[in-house]
Amino acid sequence: MPKELDYYALYLQKYLSDTGDKRKDDEEFISSRADLAAQELEDMRRDGASVPMAQESAMAVLLNGI
Questions:
Q1: Cα dihedral: 26, 32, 35, 37 (round 10)
Q2: 4-62 confidence digits (pLDDT tens)
Q3: Among 6, 27, 7, 17, which Cα is nearest to 66's?
Q4: 48 phi-psi bin (left φ>0, alpha ψ -120 to 50, beta other)
Q5: Single pTM value for the model
Q6: Reported confidence tier of residue 3, pLDDT bands at 50, 70, 90
Q7: Which residues 6+ apart lie within 8 Å of 55 measured at CB?
Q8: Residue 34 CB: number of other CB atoms within 10 A?
Q9: DSSP letters along the chain, please?
Q10: Which of 15, 44, 46, 66 is the most interior residue, by most CB within 10 Å?
């Protein structure tokens, strides 16, 4: 079975690679950040936030401190 594609993980990996960040190959870091971002999106939508607002918040979580 093929590995599931994760938008947030792919985005973060590309971002880290493009910026020369040494964490670009750290699968655990990327996966944990992607999970946090996905959870933020889900939580925001459950709380009634619009899709664009929830996506913006998820991206902020994904890239926090990078």
A1: -90
A2: 669 999 999 999 999 999 999 999 999 999 999 999 999 999 999 999 999 999 999 99
A3: 17
A4: left
A5: 0.87
A6: low
A7: 41
A8: 21
A9: -PPPP-HHHHHHHHHHHHTT-GGGG-HHHHHHHHHHHHHHHHHHHHTT--HHHHHHHHHHHHHTT-
A10: 44
